[in-house]
Amino acid sequence: MLTLTSPVKTWAHGLPAAVKLTALCGATIGLFALNSPLPLATAALAAVLLMLSGGAIFAKTALRHLRPLWPFVLIVALWHLWSRDLSGGAVVILRMLTAVTLANFVTMTTRLSDMITVLERLARPLSAFGLSPRTLALAVALVIRFIPVMQDRAEQISQSWRARSARRAGWRVLMPATLAALDDAEHVAEALRARGGSA
Question: Nearest Cα to 76, choosing from 65, 92, 63, 87?
Answer without folding.
Answer: 92
